[in-house]
């Protein structure tokens, strides 16, 4: 049980040379196939595919509408705590950064949850730093008990857990897990995570699979574009998603392709993924995995989010704050990173309607069996 052997097998392949060897005819052959395999994914990710992005976009749009219709699910993140014991050099929550550290009380969390629910949103993503002594599994269980009053769907984006801890999260009402590997380059990962529990590459890599085994309904993965070579991280993200989709067909697997944004700290991206690079990545994902969910966050600008809607997007965030208490508290807070799209929920819905898409507030309700009927 691990993606690691698969990844190791491909890690020994000279990917740069394979990308460079692809021709436009190779890409066209892949585009004409009914289903795509890993070699086709490499073709779609290659430099030779760049002149064919429009043809790729047309097919990606058809596949997306066949599988998802013209519907985009909405969600928003809620930051519970920014205490962290990790030294991730690229993250605003790095324990060495001199930012105010905050954590919501259950009373404050109730206020935040109620305010977000008043916007109509039904899907929520809760986040913390990695400080289990302050915001551990017990704290998350208590938080889920508060938030499940307002939201039928609550996902977690927190520290990597053991399988039995994920089982506790599911039992408390969490139905989704987001876990970013940050970079699939194991050597680079070690330099970016010099200290703290997140330093354990393998433990984090296998966390999404532990979530699948624990009963999560939705599992979202991704790499943070800007830490390493974006081609390589994008390729391994797609490979990881394919592995999970094949092994856990009962779980909805999604990919989020976040790009680096300004944050507290001095780290600068070493590999910039331009707009056309992100477009190529999304198109390649859709052509490789037609049933894959694709999330685009407010790290992207309003204009860019609107333009890429037809290319495969299935879920976007709205009314976002990346600070603890940022939805209701008026004090000045330091967020995990600066967002690029600060539009409210109604403003994002207006944009979706104008573009011909249906904003979806809710598409999920836990089944409650009537024990009297089924006894």
Give a quick precis of the structure.
The chain is of the alpha/beta class. 42% of the residues lie in helices and 14% in strands. An 8-stranded parallel beta barrel has the order 1-2-3-4-5-6-7-8, surrounded by 5 helices.
Which descriptors apply to this entry?
375 residues; alpha/beta; 8-stranded parallel beta barrel; 17 helices; globular
Description:
It contains 17 helices and nine strands. It is of the alpha/beta class. The chain has an eight-stranded parallel β-barrel, surrounded by five helices. The longest helix has 18 residues, at 230-247. It is globular. It starts with a helix and ends with a helix. The mean pLDDT is 92.
CA-CA gap between termini: 36 Å
**Element-level helix/strand string:** HHHHHEHEHHEHEHHHEHEHEHEHEH
Please work out how many helical segments DSSP would assign. Answer: 17
Assign the structural class, choosing from mainly alpha, mainly beta, alpha/beta, alpha+beta, or little secondary structure: alpha/beta
Helix share of residues? Answer: 40-55%
**Radius of gyration, in angstroms, nearest whole number:** 20 Å
Major beta sheet, specifics? 8 strands, parallel, barrel
- Strand neighbour order, sheet with most strands: 1-2-3-4-5-6-7-8
Global outline: globular
Mean pLDDT: 92
Strand content: 5-15%
Low-confidence region ranges: none
Question: Which secondary structure elements does this structure contain, and how are they paired or packed?
Answer:
Layout: H1 4-11, H2 15-21, H3 24-31, H4 38-45, H5 53-68, E1 71-81, H6 106-117, E2 123-128, H7 132-135, H8 137-147, E3 153-157, H9 163-171, E4 174-182, H10 186-192, H11 201-205, H12 207-214, E5 218-223, H13 230-247, E6 252-255, H14 275-288, E7 293-296, H15 302-308, E8 315-317, H16 345-354, E9 358-360, H17 371-374
Parallel strand pairs: 1-2, 1-8, 1-9, 2-3, 3-4, 4-5, 5-6, 6-7, 7-8
